[in-house]
Design brief:
Elements: H1 18-33, H2 38-44, H3 49-56, H4 64-73, H5 78-81, H6 89-102, H7 104-108, H8 122-142, H9 148-162, H10 168-180, H11 190-199, E1 203-207, E2 216-219, E3 224-228, H12 237-248, H13 257-275, H14 278-290, H15 296-303, H16 307-322, E4 327-332, E5 337-342, H17 366-369, E6 380-386, E7 390-401, E8 404-413, E9 428-431, H18 444-450, H19 478-488
Parallel strand pairs: 1-3, 6-9
Antiparallel strand pairs: 2-3, 4-5, 4-8, 6-7, 7-8
Length: 489
Amino acid sequence: MTIEALDLPAAEPETDSGDALTLGRRIRERRTELGMTLEQLAQAVDRAPSQLSALENGKREPRLPLLRALASALQSTVDELLLDEAPSERAALEISVERAQRGSVFRSLGLQPIRVSKATNDETLRAIIGLHQEVERLHSERAATPEEARRANTELRAGMRVANNYYPDLERAAADLLDSVGYSGGPVLQQTVAKVAEKLGFTLHYVSDLPHSTRSVIDRRNGRIYLSANLPSRDARAPILRALGSLVCGHEEPKNYGDFLKQRVEVNYLAGAVLLPETAAVESLRDAKKRREISMEDLRDAFAVSYEMAAHRFTNLATEWLDLNVHFMKAHESGTLIKAYENDGVRFPSDALGNLEGAMVCRNWTARTVFAQPDFFNPWYQYTDMAAGGTYWCTSRLENAKEGQYSVSVGVRFEDVKWFRGRETQHRSKSFCPDERCCRRASTELTQKWHASAWPEAATPTSLLAALPTGTFPGVDSHEVYEFLESHE
């Protein structure tokens, strides 16, 4: 069976980009020229004034029917409203300031955005823009060292958001693999996965001396896949499918970190799409939505996979098939963000470059509060009021690994929680991050007592300091791998 190499889409701007801001300013300026109030325009297009206010402030983009109605009410055309240039020099300044305040550099400073009003003069706006440009320059200069991995990761996450984390080519590839071995439904068994490997021309070998820096090793010359003999039978399915995924997707040795990360996303996606087949998983989720009982636990149990894989798979299918925007996060017990995805507008912590992994999660978020709960066997539900961005609901569970405990969380905006089990929870929290007063600043009493005496040594992961040599697999000892293959040939 031959399946062509698959590709992920390139990153595109977020919906609250400069285009949305420009459109909003053009709508506001045209309304003002006609002497219309926001309420009058809202009545003309049969919408709430709050909705139009969000459009004029660049926080939402209208669908085409609303855009046509607005153009008609404003005695304009859709093309005129969608022009790229700002309607005036003043509007251009306001757009630049607003865009700067929505950027990752400004958010990383922990400052409260200013509200630009008519009373704010042009000189003040130019000064703010100039200061922001200089801060961006300093951040870029500071980050011009080995930041290839972080930049590549940021670009990859943006591409995933554009695609709603759904890739039809990978879904078809997974369906073809299952069809090739006669899969007819139910959880995908270890035997089924072994048949897939055999169909692709590979035999499985469980060994006790697998190189410590690998999860699996493929011997393409002899048609073998080596895995650790210590894997439980159920958990062996995902490593096998990830190994096969590199063959199905036509992967070659990565040339840079961007290639490596893209390949990792593809094989993880393919493994999830095989173990939770699209047709069956969508049917299960649609039935759960109809009953207003969507649950990651039910999805996990129905397909006999880990909670993390069920949560991942849910993000693949939620937007495409359930019309739900969601977010996912995996956090270490230390508070470090390990993985994250969102298309529902939640603001994850990030560095100045917009990179999420490695940032500290707010102590008040569900992903952190779950660690303090005494009941490890049931999911933890919580509503969190964000300082900017409204209220989000999350469900979270803990999973153990050799590095410690992790929380795996899935969440949605408040207006979408009606479809989920656990919506009746009374647990609620507030988050003001990145304002340090939210959860990162000690009390004045403790600060005064210990500030001059404390001298901790940071436990810096070596992976943060390692640059990627071209033509290698990050974190893998090639010498060890080649010796391993030689000894088993």
